[in-house]
Amino acid sequence: MSLTLESDERMGKVFLWEPVAASLLFIDSGTERTWQDDAVLNSESGLPQILAPLVKLVEAAAGGR
Question: How confident is residue 36, by pLDDT bands cut at 50, 70 and 90?
Fold first, then answer.
């Protein structure tokens, strides 16, 4: 499963592998900044915590950086 978040020049993508792994990708095409991370999910309730940094990066584009 994957989830994509987009705002202006920023894109964040989350890939969920099996029930315990997630890969995060963030791309800012304006600054050419890229960030990647892998995470381990202990349960479904851990997903918001893993998504939080990615959502914050994408939301910053909408809020005027």
Answer: very high
Nearest CA among 25, 28, 22 for reference residue 46: 22
CB neighbourhood size of 8 (10 A): 13
Contact 47, 35 (CB under 8 A): no
Q: Which of 52, 62, 50, 65 is nearest to 6 (CA)?
A: 62
Rounded to two decimals, the pTM is: 0.71
Query: 10 Å Cβ neighbour count for 33?
Result: 12
Domain spans, the chain: 2-62
